[in-house]
């Protein structure tokens, strides 16, 4: 059993061990091991030129990672918190995402950008944002989120090996939760980078979710079972591209769907999921696809965050609404 | 090597001379009082965090001279754009303990009305306040106001692009702005030698800012240097930059463990340069403060600590629906509907 943070650490370690071109770079990732200790011990074992404490400049971190990647390296950048990725937004959206297409495939930048995201830890402002939709809206990036130690480890290893840039979202409130991690890449539990995972089977309603909300949805499914409702829970894992086939197959079977994410529902990725289901499952749907998410307000102060974040009750409320439509 | 401006040595001896001409007993007592109260406030907030009353606290311990010396050199009509560790400066501006703690208790994203204190709310996204200060200063200049703008930031923040854009912008526009960098040697675990290759003051000078380097644990030097810089900015000589060399005695925040990355010896060294001890030695040596002064100040600090505890515990979380307030000037039907739906939903749990 490993915590999510340990599993990611081991994923980074495996990357550094197997490929001399892999580098880890970011603010405080070296000696300190990162503010969440995800990179703990890596600088000691791989040296300060492969596990690099950078100056405090996110645009610089991503910009130089792009340069290193052009030179054949595989940088894995850490952005300290979700709310601090914006200084790097220009480098990510205008440069990283577009290099391959702009150069007609001649220049590539296999950079991984790890971002601890979403709330639930009682943090001060700018430390709890779910900003994945800014990145899923940018063609040329792969965007994934690991909800479990298993995915923390293997999704990261796949992201590092991937020739495309990958934005890797880590639900920070899950860093300390434990789970098994399979040993071999050939284990059937190791899914491809762009596959969704059905984490619980059910027949009445499909919950489509990712990141911090996977656990919330699993708890909702357990609670619903006591009331005689069988909920299926699908963890998208890959937010761009989306594994539409898996989502559609599930919803065609259950006929009802609720998308749950922590980001504001307005303009959120849930809208894309709902639209895809509307297009592909229209005749199977017994109710409109519902969304549960953050409100269209800035993430509130810590004492209010549990009112803002979707919880078990809000998920069950939406389940009720699709069941009794 | 640039000269580090210092008036008060670590042993408390004052270098007399023309730069020290404005220094007298009254000023020293006032600055000492500010620093003692700020430290007590900071200690108290730290304990409150340890007791679970605050979610997080970023200590200002060790940086009192840099903050008090600089803010006390400004006029009340001048504006300040702080970072997030500038509690001593905030207190000097009269910001109330409850206002200062609200954000760290997690009941609000900011606690005070900036216009009331001419002290902007804290900015947690590093260096973002620097261009704001420059813009505000340009506006004040256009208005023909006799006001300057000072902005505080850490040496780590100076690596952000926005900091450097702000330096350049201010110099290009001759904005009446004073950049005050508290170089406390560490940006979380990153030391200055991993932060920049050339000293910060050199870079600032390269941008065309009129630059001074000052012993940031010497409140008198900071006060004199800031007064000089402010005077020059006011006279239209363009923007100024002060690098105050100081030290972050505590961890970066209450979540940080500084023993993971820095040595006890370094900490011990900086403890001997403590800004409060230093000024106290001067006050005693010159007979500028008697026992009564110190006893009275201690009582004042104790009373402040009590007030801080009470104010903190009294800070209640606002109603949940308040998160829908102030998002836009007018909420409009969509947000109003979202709020109404939330209120109805939340109400469904009440009997
Ligand atoms: C844009 C941005 N990136 C990263 C962070 C995370 N962070 C908060 S404080 C800090 C170190 C700041 O160091 P410095 O500017 O020297 O100020 P100090 O904390 O030492 O007062 C970091 C990296 C942030 N707040 N904003």
TrEMBL record, chain A:
**Superkingdom of the source species:** Bacteria
Q: Which cofactors, if any, are listed as required?
A: thiamine diphosphate
UniProt keyword annotations, A-Z = Oxidoreductase, Thiamine pyrophosphate
- Residue ranges constituting the Transketolase-like pyrimidine-binding domain according to the UniProt record: 2-177
Q: Which InterPro entries match?
A: THDP-binding, Transketo_C/PFOR_II, Transketolase-like_Pyr-bd, Transketolase_C
Per the UniProt record, one Pfam family is: Transket_pyr
**What is this protein identified as?**
Alpha-ketoacid dehydrogenase subunit beta
Q: Which species is listed as the source?
A: Actinomycetospora endophytica
Automatic annotation (TrEMBL), chain B:
EC number annotated for this UniProt entry: 1.2.4.4
- The stretch of residues making up the signal peptide is none
Q: Which residues form the Dehydrogenase E1 component domain?
A: 34-303
Write down the required cofactor(s): thiamine diphosphate
TM region(s), chain numbering: none
Domain of life, per the record? Bacteria
UniProt keywords, alphabetically = Oxidoreductase, Pyruvate, Thiamine pyrophosphate
Catalytic activity, per the record?
Answer: N(6)-[(R)-lipoyl]-L-lysyl-[protein] + 3-methyl-2-oxobutanoate + H(+) = N(6)-[(R)-S(8)-2-methylpropanoyldihydrolipoyl]-L-lysyl-[protein] + CO2
Enzyme class, broadest EC rank: oxidoreductase
Query: What family name appears in the similarity comment?
Result: Belongs to the BCKDHA family.
Q: What does this protein do?
A: The branched-chain alpha-keto dehydrogenase complex catalyzes the overall conversion of alpha-keto acids to acyl-CoA and CO(2). It contains multiple copies of three enzymatic components: branched-chain alpha-keto acid decarboxylase (E1), lipoamide acyltransferase (E2) and lipoamide dehydrogenase (E3).
Which protein, by its recorded name, is this? 2-oxoisovalerate dehydrogenase subunit alpha
Which lineage ranks, top first, belong to the organism behind this chain?
Bacteria, Bacillati, Actinomycetota, Actinomycetes, Pseudonocardiales
């Amino acid at each position: 059993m490993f915590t999510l943070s340990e599993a990611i650490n081991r994923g980074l370690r495996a990357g550094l061990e197997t490929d001399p071109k892999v580098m880890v770079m970011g603010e405080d990732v070296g000696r300190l091991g990162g503010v969440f200790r995800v990179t703990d011990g890596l600088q000691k074992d791989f040296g300060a030129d492969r596990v690099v404490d950078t100056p405090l400049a996110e645009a610089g971190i991503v910009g130089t990672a792009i340069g290193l990647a052009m030179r054949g390296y595989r940088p894995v950048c850490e952005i300290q918190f979700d709310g601090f990725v914006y200084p790097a937004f220009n480098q990510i959206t205008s440069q990283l995402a577009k290099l391959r297409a702009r150069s007609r495939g001649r220049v590539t930048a296999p950079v991984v950008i790890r971002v601890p995201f979403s709330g639930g830890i009682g943090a001060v402002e700018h430390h709890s944002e779910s900003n994945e939709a800014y990145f899923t809206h940018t063609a040329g990036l792969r965007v994934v989120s690991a909800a479990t130690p298993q995915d923390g480890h293997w999704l990261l290893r796949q992201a590092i090996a991937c020739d495309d840039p990958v934005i890797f979202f880590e639900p920070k409130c899950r860093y300390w939760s434990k789970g098994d991690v399979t040993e071999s890449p050939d284990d059937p539990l190791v899914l491809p980078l762009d596959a969704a995972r059905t984490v619980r089977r059910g027949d009445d309603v499909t919950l489509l979710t990712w990141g911090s909300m996977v656990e919330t949805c699993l708890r909702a499914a357990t609670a619903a079972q006591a009331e005689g409702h069988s909920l299926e829970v699908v963890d998208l894992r890959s937010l761009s591209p989306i594994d539409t086939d898996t989502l559609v197959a599930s919803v065609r079977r259950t006929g009802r769907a609720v998308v749950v994410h922590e980001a504001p529902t307005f303009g959120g990725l849930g809208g894309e999921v709902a639209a895809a289901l509307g297009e592909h499952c229209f005749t199977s749907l017994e109710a409109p696809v519902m969304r549960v998410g953050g409100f269209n307000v800035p993430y509130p102060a810590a004492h209010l965050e549990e009112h803002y974040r979707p919880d078990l009750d809000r998920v069950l409320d939406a389940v009720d609404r699709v069941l009794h439509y | 090597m640039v000269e580090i401006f210092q008036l008060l040595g670590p042993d408390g001896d004052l270098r007399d001379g023309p730069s020290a001409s404005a220094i007298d007993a009254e000023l020293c007592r006032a600055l000492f009082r500010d620093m003692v109260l700020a430290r007590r406030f900071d200690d108290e907030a730290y304990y409150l965090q340890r007791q679970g009353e605050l979610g997080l606290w970023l200590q200002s311990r060790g940086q009192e001279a840099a903050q008090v010396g600089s803010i006390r050199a400004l006029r009340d009509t001048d504006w300040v754009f702080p970072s997030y560790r500038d509690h001593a400066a905030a207190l000097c501006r009269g910001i109330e303990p409850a206002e200062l703690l609200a954000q760290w208790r997690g009941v609000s994203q900011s606690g005070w009305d900036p216009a009331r204190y001419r002290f902007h709310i804290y900015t947690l996204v590093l260096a973002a306040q620097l261009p704001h200060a420059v813009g505000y200063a340009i506006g004040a200049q256009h208005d023909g106001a006799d006001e300057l703008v000072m902005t505080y930031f850490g040496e780590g923040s100076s690596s952000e692009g926005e900091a450097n854009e702000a330096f350049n912008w201010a110099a290009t526009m001759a904005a009446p702005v004073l950049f005050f960098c508290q170089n406390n040697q560490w940006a979380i675990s990153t030391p200055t030698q991993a932060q920049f290759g050339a000293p910060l003051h050199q870079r600032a000078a390269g941008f065309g800012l009129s630059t001074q380097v000052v012993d940031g644990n010497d409140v008198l030097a900071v006060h004199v240097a800031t007064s000089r810089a402010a005077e020059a900015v006011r006279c239209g000589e363009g923007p100024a930059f002060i690098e105050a060399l100081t030290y972050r005695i505590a961890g970066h925040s209450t979540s940080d463990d500084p023993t993971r990355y820095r040595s006890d010896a370094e900490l011990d060294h900086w403890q001997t340069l403590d800004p409060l001890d230093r000024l106290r030695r001067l006050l005693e040596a010159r007979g500028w403060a008697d026992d009564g002064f110190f006893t009275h100040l201690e009582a004042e600090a104790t009373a402040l600590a009590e007030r801080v505890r009470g104010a903190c515990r009294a800070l209640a979380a606002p109603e949940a629906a308040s998160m829908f307030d102030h998002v836009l000037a007018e909420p409009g039907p969509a947000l109003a509907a979202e709020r109404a739906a939330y209120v109805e939903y939340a109400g469904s749990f009440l009997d």
